[in-house]
Amino acid sequence: MKNHRSPSLISTAQSLALVVALFSASAAEAQCCNQGRHQRPGSFELSAGATQLALTESNLVPFHADLTYFSRSRGPIRSGIRLGIARLGSSSRDDSPSLPNSSENAANTQYRMLLPGMSGVLRLDPLRGGFRPFVEAEAGVDATFVDRRALNGAGERIGYDITTFQPALQYGWSAGVRVRLSRGAFLVMRYGNKHGGSLNIPLEEGPENQFESADGDRQTATVGLSFGL
Fold first, then answer.
1. Smallest Cα–Cα separation from 82: which of 40, 15, 138?
2. CB 188 within 8 A of CB 47
3. N or C of the chain: less Cβ packing under 10 Å?
4. Helix, coil or strand: residue 49
5. CA gyration radius for the chain?
6. What is the tens place of the pLDDT at every residue in 71-80?
7. Which of these ranges, 54-58, 117-121, 174-178, has the smallest mean pLDDT?
8. Residue 135's beta-bridge partner residues?
């Protein structure tokens, strides 16, 4: 009999292998470049832009922001870690019933829908002038996140819980350019693609129980600043 492997299992295994390879290469590169010398801090990048999510019948383009730290390297390859978040939306519901274990009735229930993520990054940055093009490989985890806050008639919070947290492995590539503004400061423009598991995107009309599936392919475009330490 032939063994049939699930495509989702194969994709998950490939993503895990890429995550391990990226972090292993990052550790090896950092150890190699910092032996016998005082380790200096690296650089931070703060960027903002938009992420395009391909839904079943439409596209969602939420605001996106990320913070990336890169270790300092003498060679053209730099390793780092990226934390990102996109705001998917928010909604509220009046006259909701009281939350469990609450002695007060909630006059308003508010929902906040987010898309956080964390990735390991390897950047090929070969030039050292004022105009520095680069390419990146990254792998990590994205997740859909929904929290619920219950407010009483006075606007005071009387309850809080997380209704949705659904992670998915992702991997991808990016290309961009850094333009020097001053010593240690750069303007950064980056465009990238991510691939991986599909995400259940909560709908504003029913963030607890109504979802729309987002395809595993996502595009992100950001502009930001880079500061060396």
1. 138
2. yes
3. N
4. strand
5. 21
6. 888 888 999 9
7. 54-58
8. 124, 175
* Nearest-angstrom CA–CA distance, 122 and 177: 15
Separation CA 106–CA 7 (nearest Å): 45
- Which two structure tokens, joined as six digits, stand for 6? 């699930």
More confident residue, 34 or 43: 43
Residue 59: DSSP 8-state: E
Helix (H, G, I), strand (E, B) or coil at 96: coil
The rounded distance, in Å, linking the Cα atoms of 121 and 92 is 37
Predicted structure pTM score: 0.73
Q: Which residues contact 187 (CB under 8 A, 6 or more apart)?
A: 178, 179, 181, 223, 224, 225, 226
Q: Domains of the chain: which residue ranges?
A: 7-228
Q: Judge contact between 120 and 20, C-beta under 8 A.
A: no
What digits encode the pLDDT tens for the residues 46-94? 999 998 888 766 678 889 999 999 988 888 899 999 999 998 888 877 7
Q: Which uninterrupted H or E stretch holds 87?
A: strand 77-94
8 Å CB contact between 228 and 68: no
Phi first, then psi, for residue 76 (nearest 5°) are -80, -10
Q: Specify whether the CB–CB gap between 224 and 215 falls below 8 A.
A: no
Q: Which of the four CATH numbers 3.40.50.1010, 2.40.160.20, 3.40.50.720, 2.40.10.10 does domain 7-228 have?
A: 2.40.160.20
